[in-house]
Amino acid sequence: PALGLFLFTIARDPLRIIILIAGAFFWLVSLLLSSLIWFIAVKASDPQDVPLQRGLLIFGVMFSVLLQEAFRFLYYKILRKAIEGLVALSEDGCSPISIQQMAYVAGVGFGLMSGAFSMINLLADALGPGTVGIHGDSQLYFLTSAFMTMVLIFLHTFWGILFFHGCEYRRWWEIVAVVVMHLAVSGSTFCNPLYVGSLVPSYLLMAAAAVWAYLLSGGSAQNLRRFLLCKS
Amino acid sequence: MITFMNNSDSEEEPCNERTSLVSAESPPVPSYQDGLHASAAGESQAHRKRRTGGSRSPNSADGDMSDSGVPVRESAMENEEEELTLKYGAKHVIMLFVPVTLCMIVVVATIKSVRFYTEKNGQLIYTPFSEDTPSVGQRLLNSVLNTIIMISVIVVMTVFLVLLYKYRCYKFIHGWLILSSLMLLFLFTYIYLGEVFKTYNVAMDYPTVFLMIWNFGAVGMICIHWKGPLHLQQAYLIMISALMALVFIKYLPEWSAWVILGAISIYDLMAVLCPKGPLRMLVETAQERNEPIFPALIYSSAMMWTVGMAKQDAAARGPSQQTWDAAEDGRENHRSPLHTDSQMSETRSPAPTRPNTSFEELEEEERGVKLGLGDFIFYSVLVGKAAATASGDWNTTLACFVAILIGLCLTLLLLAVFKKALPALPISITFGLVFYFLTDNLVRPFMDTLASHQLYI
User: Fold this and answer.
1) Is B306 within a domain?
2) Which of A44, A67, A98, B248 has the lowest tally of Cβ within 10 angstroms?
């Protein structure tokens, strides 16, 4: 689905592709920094102590979430500057791309990158012989990973829209809500392999975020109805 | 192995040419400073007309660099020019993204599937020091020595080429280029095909192979050195860049490869920007003579159509040609790692002076950006090496890919800002290297641990 999003909405306009790649880049940098912190923490601690390692991991995850959001904010700032530049340079005085589109594309960029990093090694291994969960782990590993990745990509997209909207209109509570949601989703994955604990809340949160983002982008129930019934 | 080693001499030549020339190509002075004068545009078109036979953009490049001999108009036009440049900026970036991505995909796919390119079967004679030594210090020393030898070979080749160009030994250069592209197209393709067939266990007989390679090679030669459909030419250039990159990946020992990548980007930076750099001299000489860059050395994303030029326009433009040529001397810059043509702007403004509109349509050439083939090759080497040797596999490859693309974006942005020739290698390669090492050592353990617990960030 994410790839479909990409093809249909982003691939046409070159500016969007650039913003997408830049978004992916920012996510990557945030990941780099957070893994640096985690690495240092691990090296500085005792590798034999399992609960400590797990605690460190949790700390690493939370920190990474916070860093991701920080980088999203940074990206927002840069995009604002870029929009001003584009407006100044365009012929008719208005920007070729609106901040909302940018928010959407940035969200997709983040999401794609995080999804890719989560899934791709899995996919590569999946080409091998089919031995899922032989050691007593859940057999649904691949399926749940796929679903989780998809929900995360969508969530990033919606968070992008919400976040940028919050920054635009200075509604801090929106930004805080996004951060809290992100933390909640990551935290819920700690329940794995108890999948019901992680997948269900994530999907619920995603639905909520979707509705919220849709409303923010100017949609309404009426628009939706008209679209679905193909009225012109 | 011996035959391969012998061939490596000539194989290095194309690579050297490509590396040095192409990556060092200074983008012609941003065309938007020149193109918007109606007369200049007319002149440039007539000028372009003279340059038949070059179906590639270098010819158009010549045409582009109509000089700012009309200062009055220039200042007024500058704002519009900036807009146009930036407006086309995004499009150009994508026009370059796509081939770079394609090249990288081809290289990575081959590395991942065909075993041959990751086996160590010996080294090129340009990197004589082996890296099998037990101690780290020795290995480092060997790789540095290898790098020095390689870079000096490239420098020597570049200077040689510049001298040849200066003394107008065009036949020699052309012959050399043709020979090297011949070898690339035929020999390397043969080896590549052989290995692919071996991997997928496809039975194939010699006559079929001969036919396929002959067709491939012949069409390639025509496309690259003469005229051909743009997409086909681009596809061939991508193919030979990928083949060259694969050869590098196979035959360069590990640490040497990384050090060479770093050194090449530094060399590129110096060769293009220093006043005495060979590449810069080459560019300036080409400028003075208003000549196109050699074919088969640059990738261009647009093409000039010289067909159907009406004769009456030529007559009308005849007198204005002289002034344009004289003015052009100071500005023309053919060799360019990145270079934007201002064809479109030129063709637009003289619309009222044009007698027939059909001519204009034929004339209209898309603005294109040029990137040297050496840049393609080294980007692909970086990503291919990441795919081949990184233990984090796809994550690292993906990270390097994104880093290189962002580097390319930034370089193009700088090109739009500075409006002169820029080396395309340094920024991207730096990003790529940094990301490769960081991702391999830091991110991989993190992601692996996360994945094993199925945590998501």
Assistant:
1) no
2) A44
Q: How many domains does chain B have?
A: 1
Q: In whole angstroms, what is the distance from residue B230 CA to residue B224 CA?
A: 10
Rounded distance, CA B358 to CA B54, Å?
22
Whole-angstrom CA distances from B148 to B145, B262, B273 are 5, 12, 21
Question: Which is catalytic among the residues B313, B325, B341, B375?
Answer: B375
Contact between A201 and A160 under an 8 Å Cβ cutoff? The reply is no
Beta bridge partners of residue B298, listed in sequence order:
B372
In a domain? residue B171: yes
Half-sphere exposure of A217 (CA within 13 A, CB side): 23
Q: How many angstroms separate the CA atoms of B228 and B373, rounded?
A: 18
Q: Which among B34, B268, B325, B440 is annotated as catalytic?
A: B268
User: Is the Cβ of B226 closer than 8 Å to some Cβ of chain A?
Assistant: no
Beta bridge partners of B138: none
Measured distance CA(B143)–CA(B147) in Å, rounded: 6
Distance CA(B281)–CA(B454), nearest Å, equals 57
Residue B268's domain comprises 91-301+370-387
Domain-wise residue ranges, chain A: 1-229
Distance from first CA to last CA of chain A, Å, rounded? 26
pLDDT-derived band at B4, boundaries 50, 70, 90:
very low
C-alpha distances in Å from residue B332, one per residue of B27, B135, B262, B293, B370: 9, 52, 30, 11, 15
- Contact flag A86-B86 (C-beta cutoff 8 Å): yes
Question: What confidence category does residue B81 fall into, taking pLDDT thresholds of 50, 70 and 90?
Answer: low
HSE-up (13 A, CA, CB side) for residue B208 = 7
Give this complex's ipTM: 0.77
Cβ-nearest to A124 among B86, B394, B435: B394
Q: Which of A19-23, A40-44, B328-332, B425-429 has the lowest mean pLDDT?
A: B328-332
Q: In terms of CA atoms, which chain A residue is nearest residue B391? A: A121
What are A15-46's pLDDT values in tens digits?
Answer: 777 777 787 788 888 888 888 887 877 777 66
Residue of A nearest to B87 (CA): A90
Angstrom distance (rounded) from CA A176 to CA B316: 68
Please tell me the total number of residues recorded for chain B in this structure. Answer: 457
Q: Is the pTM of this model over 0.90?
A: no
The size of chain A, in residues, is 232
Evaluate whether residue B5 is within a structural domain: no
Chain A residues touching residue B395 (CB < 8 angstroms):
117, 120-121
Is pLDDT of A104 > 60?
Answer: yes
Q: What is the pLDDT of residue B347?
A: 36
Closest by Cα among B412, B223, B421 to B334 = B421
> At B433, which helix (H) or strand (E)?
helix B425-438
CA dist., res. B28 & res. A2, Å (int) = 40
Chain A residues lying within 8 Å of B399, measured CB to CB: 28
Two structure tokens written together for B183: 């070898």
Say whether pLDDT at B140 is over 80. yes
